Input
Amino acid sequence: MMEQKAQWTILVYIAAHNNLEQLGRRSLAQILDVGSTPQLKLAALYDGPHGATRTVAGEPGQPAIEEPLGDFDSGDPDTLLETARWAFEQCLAERYGLVLWSHGSGWRPEDRDRAGGDAPSAWTPEALARIARQARGDDAVSHSELVERAGQGGRLALFRTTLARILRQDDPAERAICFDDGSGHSLDTLELERVVREVSEVIGQPLDLLGLDACVMATLEVAYQVRQHVRYLVASEELVPGRSWPYDTILGALRSAPVTSARDLAALVVQHYVDYYNANPPPLNGGDVTKVALDLAQIDPLIRAAGGLGKALLKEMDGQADYLWAAQRETQARETLQGKRWNNKFYYHLWDLGTLAARLGENSDSAAVRDAARGVKAALEPGGAVIAEGHHGDWFDGIGGVSIYAVPPGVQRISPYYREVALARDTRWSEMLEAYHQALS
Output
């Protein structure tokens, strides 16, 4: 007799083989405390410094089913695929959700040491170790954020394959530049598409919900890259506090109403996340947080709008470069440094698309650019791709919830890997950035 399908199976993949070990255990405990029911199956993979365990939460009156795995490489995308197959094949459901809890899982100290090579001295293990000691606590930061706090532009990598590709650069200086110019994010985006494509093949349908409980992943590039294999995406364009998502309230609400649709669950995550940090402001970012839920079936109009803005800027770049530069000066990069706003925001490579478009729509002297920018703002309004956007703190007033790669000229180069991303291939945005850099070089 075939087992009856649950309404939902949720797999939370906790890659805590780093300084977030205890925070990963905290999230795991919340998941197991909620527990499974006949209509809601909860599975988790926890990878910490002392080994890994994969678990299916028990139903009422039943213990959790745990399987110790020993040493485990949670930064390997093939390991993630095998874990998804394990969870989804034994916990059949009408809807499937995958959450990647990955605050720096792709990095390990020995990798960063290799990557540093002849890079600036702020990357030294001693500097990182000192900052790690200072950062321990309830809101400890990821290894990538430690690098940022040390004064360099390292960012989180979801996958070790991302790091491996960068490390294949023979020139230590070139490797260092790749960590600064957004190459890690571009390569993560490409690898993430492969993962969700193969997961969707395992379950025979697109993932109903992809949650990225990781920093600065709510980018237009990520959303467009996974659109064919994921129905709803939930992520943040900013740093995610170490306490991550409030899994107890999110999954508790789903347990109480397991027939919740994927769209409603995506919006519910945003609501509970913002409500939690409104009541419990994290030290990181001065207490400010942001989260967005996207309907990827509706992402194409937003892509066309962003591509239209890139095309309009490209056509008139000689006259528009200064306006774009001014717009970047007046808006905010969607990353932070040292737990506060860094004085030189041009150190970053991801920009909030909504505020960037708003400034161009207000200030450009080109009617075509103004119209295209207003089109982007309209496409970010709720009811299209954005089904829920929430934030806490004045810092995020007016944002659209989604960032885009907009590395500023004269400060950083354009990543050589960016052109491989689908958004760069299918729009003129990459060409626009190249023209922008040339115009202000």
Remarks:
- The chain has two domains: 1-297+384-395, 299-383+396-439.
- Confidence is low (pLDDT under 50) at residues 104-156, 334-347.
- The CA atoms of residues 311 and 428 lie 6 Å apart.
